[in-house]
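Supplementary Note 3. Input sequence used for the single-chain structure prediction.
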Amino acid sequence: MQIREIHIDEALMIRKEVMYPNKAVKFAKIENDDEGKHYGLFNNNQLISVVSIFIKNNELQFRKFATLKPYQNKGLGTKLLEFVFQFAIEHHCTAIWCNARKNAIGLYKRFGMLEIGEPYLQNDIEYIQMKKEL
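The predicted structure, written as discrete structure tokens, is reproduced below.
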């Protein structure tokens, strides 16, 4: 396993395949992608999981965390999330947060993240903000 910074185009391909399989690649892009850092988890030189990191006001937001389906529920994406939390600590962030899909809440709770506010719908998917003070 290797985690390294990747180009946004690499992240977009995994995002599209996992999160938006029936949409165009441009649907997987977010407007401030050029302001973030994008990281990938590689297994035998194959990119299998991606995440994008944005730091603002000393808080780290991670977005578009996606793992290819054959590698899900095997602890591999968890390795990438562990990297994100360590990144936040090393960069002296005061908190880490995300807008979590309902089906990912359990994973984020294992990292000590708490649900903030009320759930909301976006593109027919239920989300809730989750956060952990560091």
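Strands lie at 2-5, 37-43, 46-56, 59-67, 95-101, 114-122, 125-133. The chain has one domain: 2-98.
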